[in-house]
Each structure stands twice: as structure tokens, then as C-alpha cells.
Specification:
two-stranded antiparallel sheet; alpha/beta
Length: 390
């Protein structure tokens, strides 16, 4: 696989979440602004129908260890039959907590009655689904229509065996490969049938924060790669720094932002890619307070995974394995994230591509950049689109 050119940085306004379309990005992905516009139209043309389609994409399957795992599979009739994008979403509190009808009711209301309304309608429980949908629409608009399979988390404890949970605790995230393999088999059955001549043989993997560790570990696992040709891995906010659980908690809760503010001046001539239309609609009345925090706390309560983030050696070996096997690995790191400030220096020097995510002049962009839908969709799309050009 030949080397593809990637921009070295992506600039985003930390307040509006608008991404600056620099000449480097335009040269790498010509027509990306029109692709974002098409992705928005998919929602805006008929929001009710679109939300119903996303709701219909939800399903659960039983892990070979017994517990039900929540997923979604977004696809269209002209989706690539033999490829799939797998997204690990550990902080999503599983599938959305309100129906498409309830979310539509919330989005179309003239006014909202504050905190209670937000908690009842749980609009932000759709956050991960908006990211998955944006990636699907963006890839499709660029002519690279790939089904998007999302594994919602936190994954139930007993979806993994005691041995696998022990491996997570030691920093080895390869058991995520077994779960991904089973999820892909479910997607295969739903798209084509298990015994069809048409088989899903190629995979792309993406995740952010803890999801990035899962994506890297899964894609490098021998069990997964026995049946799936891993083409790309996108690891946004890959954590390779904290040395203990207290250190991890401090970086996430107390001292999230580090370093100097950006000195990047954005030209007024640069096109701005706004946050996606669906996410703007969800955020129009502000975020949930209780529900959003509860999802983060529930995700972080899975101690084997959290402990694993403090032992990066296995993840570094997984990165080396991916690069040795010519997988296009893209790591995107927020410039001012306390959790990932040491990640770049911990990576092997054999081909990992690192993109710095920066705020505009005077801004600091931290770890929660992985909640910016347009930004996250752009990062994953860059990797998949350029890898497929080679």
C-alpha cells in the first residue's frame, strides 16, 4: 500500500465546532464541502423519516459469552457488499434512550421546558448515532458507500469471559477483536445471509478515547484477522499516558486541558464546515445534564478497561503489528488534551500517521474534541478515503 498524503493538522472552533477547510484538506479530499452538504440534506429533507431509519438500524445480538450487545447497522441498497466500518463507542450508554418519534418531537418543539424536558427526551443519548450516521453519509457522498456497524458501550461485563476481562485489565485490548468478529457475523447475516456467496471480507475500524484502544486492539487481534482483511484503523484520542487510575481520573476530570493556546490564525477566505445538521438540532436547546454525565460515569466504571488504559505496552505492540501489516493507521490527537499529551511520543517510529487537532487562535482544544461530529467524521473519512485510493 503506497503512502497517502494527509494534512498534518485540522483546525476547529471550540465554541461552534466548525471545522476549517484548509487548502491541505481540500487537496486531500476534493469536494469534501459538498459531501458535508449532502450529508446534511439526507437529514434535513425528511428528519422524521431519517430518524426512523436510524432507529430501524438498531439491534442486539448475544455474545458467545452470553450477554446481549447493542449495535446499529447503517447501510443502503448500494452499499459496498464486502466491506464494513466498525465503530467502537464505549461511552454511549448502549443504544439511544428515546425513540425516533420522541426525539423528533423534541427537535420540532418551539420551546423546551429546561432540564426536565432534556432528561425525558434524552436527545444526547443519540450523540453516537449522529456520529455513525455522519460517517456513513459522508463516505457515501464521496462515492465510498460502506455499511457502518456501531458497537455501543458500555459492553456488558459478561459479554467477555473472565480471561478476556483480565486481558483488558493488563492493557491488552485484543479481546475486542472476538466481539467485533461476532458483530460482523451478525451484520453479514442481516445484509447477505451467513451462507451467501457474498461475504464481508474487508474491515475498517474506528474509535475515540477508550474506543480508540478497542479499535486498535481488535484490528490487531489474530482472531479477527483470520477472516477480515483490516484496511484502516482510525484512533482519535488514543490514550497512552496515564500511569494509574488516580492519574487517569485527574486528567479526565480535574486537569483536562494542558499546554498553550493555539496560535493558528484562520483566513477569512477558508470555508468553514459547520457541525452536522442533526447534531446542531440536538444541541439547539443545550445538552442534558444528568444523562450525559451518567453515561460518562457508567463508561468509566468499567474498571478492567480503565486499568488497561494505564498499561499502554500491549497497545503499542498492537500499533506495531498494524503497521507491519500495512494497515493505514491514523491517530488524531487534540493539542491540549491532558489524557493524550504523551501519546505521540509513545508511538513506534514505523509509519503511524498523526494529525494534530487544534483550536483557532487563542483557543485550547481538549479531549472532548471526540464529541465533535463533523470533526470526528472528517478524521475517519480521511483515513478510509485515502487508503482506498491506493
Amino acid at each position: 500500500m503506497g503512502a497517502a498524503k494527509f494534512p498534518q493538522q485540522i483546525i476547529t472552533d471550540t465554541e461552534t465546532k466548525a471545522v476549517t477547510l484548509t487548502p491541505e484538506i481540500e487537496a486531500t479530499l476534493p469536494g469534501i464541502d459538498q459531501a458535508f452538504a449532502e450529508a446534511d440534506r439526507a437529514f434535513l429533507d425528511d428528519p422524521e423519516k431519517y430518524l426512523q431509519g436510524l432507529e430501524a438500524s438498531m439491534f442486539q445480538f448475544k455474545s458467545s459469552e452470553g450477554s446481549e450487545v447493542a449495535c446499529s447497522l447503517i447501510h443502503s441498497p448500494d452499499s459496498k457488499p464486502d466491506e464494513i466500518l466498525v465503530i467502537f463507542a464505549p461511552f454511549s450508554d448502549r443504544e439511544p434512550k428515546s425513540s425516533a418519534y420522541k426525539l423528533g418531537e423534541y427537535l420540532t418543539a418551539d420551546t423546551q421546558d429546561g432540564i426536565i424536558s432534556k432528561e425525558i427526551f434524552a436527545p444526547n443519548s443519540w450523540n453516537q448515532t449522529t456520529k455513525s450516521a455522519a460517517m456513513f453519509e459522508l463516505l457515501g457522498a464521496l462515492g465510498k458507500n460502506i455499511p457502518v456497524l456501531t458497537i455501543y458501550g458500555p459492553v456488558p461485563t459478561h459479554a467477555y469471559s473472565p480471561r478476556e476481562r483480565s486481558e483488558f485489565k493488563s492493557g491488552d485490548f485484543s479481546p475486542a477483536g472476538r466481539l467485533a468478529k461476532e458483530a460482523i457475523a451478525e451484520a453479514q447475516d442481516r445484509l447477505h445471509g451467513l451462507n451467501s456467496e457474498t461475504q464481508i471480507t474487508s474491515g475498517h475500524f474506528s474509535g475515540a478515547s477508550l474506543g480508540a484502544s478497542n479499535a486498535v486492539g481488535a484490528a490487531a487481534s489474530k482472531e479477527l484477522r483470520e477472516g477480515v482483511d483490516v484496511r484502516t484503523v482510525t484512533a482519535q484520542e488514543l490514550i497512552l499516558g496515564p500511569k494509574s487510575l488516580p492519574d487517569l481520573g485527574k486528567r479526565f476530570i480535574v486537569k483536562r486541558i494542558v499546554g498553550k493556546a493555539s496560535d493558528e490564525t484562520v483566513s477569512g477566505n477558508n470555508t468553514k464546515i459547520e457541525e452536522t445538521a442533526m447534531r446542531r438540532a440536538i444541541d439547539a436547546h443545550g445538552p442534558e445534564i444528568i444523562g450525559t454525565n451518567a453515561r460518562a460515569i457508567q463508561g468509566m466504571s468499567k474498571l478492567p478497561y480503565m486499568k488497561g488504559l494505564t498499561k499502554p505496552e500491549a497497545t503499542v505492540r498492537a500499533v506495531e503489528s498494524l503497521l507491519d501489516n500495512n494497515v493505514s493507521l491514523l491517530i488524531a490527537l487534540a493539542e491540549n488534551s491532558a489524557l493524550t499529551k504523551q501519546t505521540a511520543g509513545s508511538l513506534p517510529n514505523n509509519g503511524a500517521r498523526v494529525i494534530t487537532l487544534r483550536g483557532e487562535n487563542g483557543q485550547k482544544l481538549g479531549h472532548l474534541a471526540d464529541e465533535h461530529v463533523a470533526l470526528s467524521a472528517l478524521v475517519t473519512t480521511l483515513n478510509i478515503a485515502k487508503a482506498k485510493d491506493n
